[in-house]
Design brief:
- Strands 2-5-1-7-6 form a 5-stranded mixed sheet.
- The protein has helices spanning 20-24, 71-79, 105-108, 120-133, and strands at 4-9, 29-35, 40-45, 49-54, 63-70, 85-91, 97-103, 112-113.
- The protein is globular, with a radius of gyration of 14 Å.
- It has one domain: Roll (Hypothetical upf0131 protein ytfp).
- By secondary structure, it is an alpha+beta fold.
- A hairpin with a 5-residue loop joins strand 6 and strand 7 (97-103).
Length: 134
């Protein structure tokens, strides 16, 4: 039995962002940048973190990172995630299915949809450019 698994992350767990130390502290190793298949939508939860939800229609590919995570660290990471986020199966652009951070549908109700940006980093860059312009 494997003692690690692949984990897809699409928000603040990514390299250089606020919760990335949660991955590093359990010994997770960055593998690659990639995208989901075109079946997801993305919301900003009060501009603090994103929530990605799989949809039946109108989905796009969302940018994410793949990390190798020790099984013993998965629960630690999940317990440190913001409310409304969970671990579920995510289908990547190449067809591979891995575990990943997903949003609960109730979490995104009334929140700003940011699917058009294609990922959390692009949305953060947009927010930064708006702040700089004002």
């Amino acid at each position: 039995m494997a003692d690690t698994l692949k984990l897809a992350v699409n928000g603040t767990l990514m390299r250089g962002l606020a919760l990335n130390p949660n991955l590093l502290n359990v010994g997770a190793i960055f593998n690659a940048e990639t995208q989901t298949e075109a079946a997801y939508r993305l919301w900003s939860i009060d501009d603090e973190y994103p929530a990605m939800v799989r949809v039946a229609a109108g989905g796009v590919a969302i940018a994410l990172e793949i990390w190798t995570v020790p099984l013993a660290g998965l629960g630690v990471i999940l317990m440190q995630e913001p409310p409304g986020l969970a671990i579920g199966k995510v289908k990547l652009a190449d067809g591979e299915i891995v575990l990943g951070v997903i949003g609960e549908p109730l979490t995104v109700q009334g929140k700003r949809e940011i699917t058009e940006f294609g990922g959390w980093r692009a949305y953060q860059q947009f927010l930064s450019s708006v702040a700089t312009a004002t």
